[in-house]
Amino acid sequence: MALRQIRVLGDDILRKKCRPINEITPNILELIDDMIETMHKADGVGLAAPQVGILRRLAVIDVGEGPVVIINPEILETKGSAITIEGCLSVPEESGYVDRPTYAKVKALNKDGEEVIIEGRGLFAKALCHEIDHLDGILYIDKIIPEDELEFEDEE
Ligand code: ZN
Question: 12-149 falls under which CATH superfamily?
């Protein structure tokens, strides 16, 4: 395993659309291991392939319950909405408020090439949406709600 360099804002690769993975080759498996190691080392909860310079539909997520690999993920269903602080390993030292679903149901392949249905709630739902956005060149900063437009319920 090896650490990969995390691309940061300003690198065009973060804005490109990723292609599906047709076959899970030894190179892809090595990439997955490297991405998990890189995510853990950077203390992140998720990392998408374009963030390490690979334009393939693959991401890894770990919200503290062990790594989850999603290959060619598709969001099947979302529920709820919550505005919470979000950050990204490709946008270091920054954060902002983003509105995300509180539940997400995703279809993907795991690293054995098996189709799996993943249901995420809370932080896991948010991470699924954030990482899948990366595969289409979308960053959370595109979705930031300016602080003066935030309406917190406890202020009503
Ligand atoms: Zn990110």
Answer: Peptide deformylase (3.90.45.10)
